[in-house]
User: What shape does this take?
Amino acid sequence: MRYSRHDDEETETPKREDAAQSAFQALQHVIDTTEGKKPAPKRKPRKGAASSDKLSVSGDNLVASMASRVKGLFESNNDRDRRRRILVVDDEPPILDFVQRVLEPAGYDITTATSGKRALELATTDGPFDAVVTDLLMPGMNGDEVARQLRASFPDLKVLYLTGFSDQLFKDKVTLWHDEAFLDKPTTIKGLTEAVALLLFGTTSKHSSPT
Assistant: This one.
């Protein structure tokens, strides 16, 4: 394709379509690789026909759209791989120590509180957290009230009740709220890690993809 700068001068048009096409193919390769797809085989265009892989005049917009999609994929992967932050609340220091010793080596950032009041303070100064693991019956403020107040400020917070009195959870409600679960005391290392992973990732292993 040619255009005239002057009546007596012709210059070849900058090949924007080719540049856009190259960017398109590179971005498509990144998307396919990230999503685990096999690259589509290149098709040889029919003689005399335009290549089906060629971009239209709006190719730049398509490339920009795909670039945004790639960015979203990487952001999603980064969010999946980041360390989740968990607030652990219990009035018994040995329980706090047990939960911390189990979950920190599993890849979680742990903050502990020995009371509901302290948990609310930490949520304000150190939050937000991805989940709270809390005892149910505690002096001053029970775990369900701690969870209620925390979720009023952080609606996406996951809640795991670690308690020996799970029947008390259903004293005032028929079922647990969304993103809540409970685990009976005493629990095992496996039971705790699986319960936390299931709550946060939808699977019993934090390194597996939800099904």
About this structure: Residues 2-80 form one domain. The helical segments are 16-34, 59-81, 93-103, 116-126, 143-153, 189-201. The first helix runs from residue 16 to 34. The first strand starts at residue 2 and ends at 6.
